[in-house]
Specification:
- This protein is mainly beta.
- It has a single domain (3-199), classed as Coagulation Factor XIII, Chain A, domain 1, CATH 2.70.50.
- The protein contains two helices and twelve strands, in the order H-E-E-E-E-E-E-E-E-H-E-E-E-E.
- Strand 1 and strand 2 (32-35) form a beta hairpin.
- Its EC number is 1.14.99.56.
- This is lytic cellulose monooxygenase (C4-dehydrogenating).
- GO terms for molecular function: metal ion binding; monooxygenase activity.
- It catalyses: [(1->4)-beta-D-glucosyl]n+m + reduced acceptor + O2 = 4-dehydro-beta-D-glucosyl-[(1->4)-beta-D-glucosyl]n-1 + [(1->4)-beta-D-glucosyl]m + acceptor + H2O.
Length: 202
């Protein structure tokens, strides 16, 4: 992109992010960082292949929407790959999450029952890794914890998961039934994680 045009575009990107719900700009897996897909700049550039799936914007998906599992136009695969040992932490780093967006945060997984590249998240059978809602003793939601932790959320991949390919889903929920999920794709092989393919959507 032309430097002059880029200089005009970047301030608009920050305005757009501030007006929206935010998105995951980075994923840390086993201590290694992988840039996320930026819906406001990457479509105008030619970024290297990302382990993170493209997203169309930083909006939300309403409860009951047919695309709830993978956001609008988000149920697509990616060839970028990262390797992860069993039991590693996966941290989803959000670029922005408004202070008035209160609600639970959860992480789920589901077997792709084969190749995740051709498996639709709408057909997934999810099982929970972690979930947090309202903390009455602190009068805070899980979203407050996410912001306090540098707008990030960390989950642990099970160390004893059966071999195969899986989806892992980190999701924020607003009390207004607006959802901003993050979808990731990975493969377990004999107790070790290999070929983790991440697909982030909102």
């Amino acid at each position: 992109m032309d430097i002059f045009l880029l200089s005009l575009f970047l301030p608009l990107w920050w305005i757009q992010a501030a007006a929206g719900h935010g998105f995951v700009h980075n994923v840390v897996i086993g201590g290694q960082s992988y840039p996320g897909w930026n819906p406001f700049s990457d479509p105008f550039n030619n970024p290297p292949p990302r382990i993170v799936r493209k997203i169309v914007n930083d909006g939300f998906v309403s409860a009951g929407d047919a695309d709830l599992a993978c956001h609008h136009h988000g149920d697509e695969g990616t060839d970028a790959i990262a390797e992860v040992p069993a039991g590693s932490e996966v941290t989803f780093e959000w670029v922005y999450w408004p202070g008035d967006h209160q609600g639970p945060v959860s992480t789920y997984m589901a077997s792709c029952e084969g190749d995740c590249a051709t498996f639709s998240a709408n057909s997934a059978r999810w099982f929970k890794l972690d979930a947090a809602g309202y903390f009455p003793e602190d009068r805070q939601w899980a979203a407050d914890k996410l912001r306090a932790d540098g707008t990030s959320w960390t989950s642990v991949i099970p160390a004893n998961l059966a071999p195969g390919e899986y989806l892992i889903r980190n999701e924020q929920h607003r009390a207004t039934f607006h959802h901003t999920p993050v979808l990731s794709k990975l493969r377990s092989n004999q107790g070790h994680w290999k070929w983790i393919r991440l697909s982030i959507f909102q």
